[in-house]
Amino acid sequence: MSKPDALSQFEALAAWLRGALGAGEEFSLGYSGESSEFIRFNQGKVRQAGHVQQASLCLQLIRDGRHAELQVTLGGAPQVDRQRLAEALAQLRQTLPLLPPDPYLQLNREAWHSQVLQLEALPDSAAVVEQIGQAAQGLDLVGFYAAGPLSRGFASSSGAFGWHQASSFNFDWSLFHSNGQALKAQYAGQTWQADAFARRMQQAREQLSYLAQPVRTLAPGSYRAYLAPAALQEILELMSWGGFSAQALADKDSPLQRLHAGTASLSPLLNLHEQVTGSLTPAFSSEGYPRRDLQLIRAGQPGEQLVSARSAAEYSLPANGASPWESPQSLAMAAGSLEQDEILARLGDGLYIGNLWYLNYSDRPAARLTGMTRFASFWVEDGKLQAPLASMRFDDSLYDLLGSQLEALTRERELSLSTSTYRQRHNGSTLLPGALLRRLTLTL
C-alpha cells in the first residue's frame, strides 16, 4: 500500500521541527485530520450534503520543566504549513519563560514506532443515499450520515512516531410517528453491508408500528427490564466518568470506589475492556505513550486502571496510554448467551428500554444514578410488545443494574461510533450487548 499523502506531510513537518530545535528544547507534535462526507436527511430525503477536509497540528514545546502548546491549522501546501509551524514555535519560545515549571510533567522519551492503516473501501455516497431512500419509503426519517477516513499522528523530539488512519461510516437516524412519538437507531462500522442495514431498518419499522398504541404510564416501582445496547451505552458512558480513572480512584472520587476497595462487586457476567486492537482509535495517546488492550473489569471484579502521564507522575504509577481525562475511548463488553430472538420471551412482563437520557449521579460514592427513559421504550406482556411507555425516571445503583440484578447479556453486540462533530469527527466507540435485568426501579 502506498504511503498516504497526509502521512508523508506529517513526517516532513516532524523532521523539519527536529532540526529547528534549540539547545535544551523538546517537542511533541500531534496530528488530527479527516476527509468526511456529511449528508443530512429530513422526511427521508437529502436536505444538505457536503464534504469537509481539514487537518491540524498540536505543537507542545518543553524546556526546563515548562511546557506550552498551540494549535496550527494546516492548508496542505508544504511551504505554507512549515511557515505556520515555525511561527508557532517562535510564539511558544516567547511564552515558556513566563510559565512556572510543571511538577507533574512526565515525558515518554522512548523512540517507539506505530503505524496502522485501516482504509476500508466505503460505498459511494450516491449508493448510500439510494439505499436509505428506498428503506425510508413511507417513513418520516430524520438522520445524519458521516463517512470517510480519520487520521491521527504523533511525533516527538525523542524519535517516537505514530500514525493511525482508518475509514468509517456512521448513520444516526430517528423515525417519527404521526402522533409525535419517535424512535432512534444507528448503523455504524467500517464496511457497509446492505443486508445488515436493511435488518436494522426493518427492526425500526416494526417498533414504529407499536408507537401507534396509547401511551402506557406505569406506577413507580420495580420491574423486569431489558436494556438495548443504546440504553446500556448511556449507563456505561456515565460510569466511565471517573470509574476507571487512576486519578479519581487515588482521590477517592470514583463512582466505583467501593468496587476497587473490595466492599462491593459487580456481576460475574460483566467483562469490560478498553479495546485498542482493531479499533478506530490510535494505538498511542496524545501524550506520547503507546496504548494496549486493558481489562477494566474481569468477571465483575476490578481490573486495570486508566493511567495518564500526569497521574503516573503524581501517584507513581506506570502510564498506560490513557487519555488526559482517563476515560475509555474504545470500550467493549463481552457478549453473553441470550439470543436476539429470545429477548422478549425471557423478559416476559416488563420494560423494553431502547434509549435512556439525562443520566447523572444521585449518589456518586454509592454509584447510584438517575435518568429518564426515551425513544422506543415499551411495555411488554407475556413476551410481546404492548404499548409505548411514557417517559419515566429511574433511580438505581450500578451495583444492582450491573451486579445483583443482571440476569443475562445478549450474544449479539452492537457497534456504536461517536456522533460528535465538535471541531472534527471523533473516533470513540463502544461495542456492547443488550442486558436483561431482574429489576429496574422507576421512581416517577
UniProtKB/TrEMBL annotation:
InterPro entries: Metalloprtase-TldD/E_C (IPR045569), TldD/PmbA_sf (IPR036059). GO terms for biological process: proteolysis. The keyword Hydrolase applies. SUPFAM superfamilies: Putative modulator of DNA gyrase, PmbA/TldD. GO terms for molecular function: metallopeptidase activity. Residues 220-442 form the Metalloprotease TldD/E C-terminal domain. This is Predicted Zn-dependent protease or its inactivated homolog. It comes from Pseudomonas borbori. Keywords: Hydrolase, Protease. It holds the Pfam family PmbA_TldD_3rd. Transmembrane segments: none annotated. PANTHER family: CONSERVED PROTEIN (PTHR43666:SF1), TLDD PROTEIN (PTHR43666). The keyword Mitochondrion does not apply. It comes from the Bacteria.
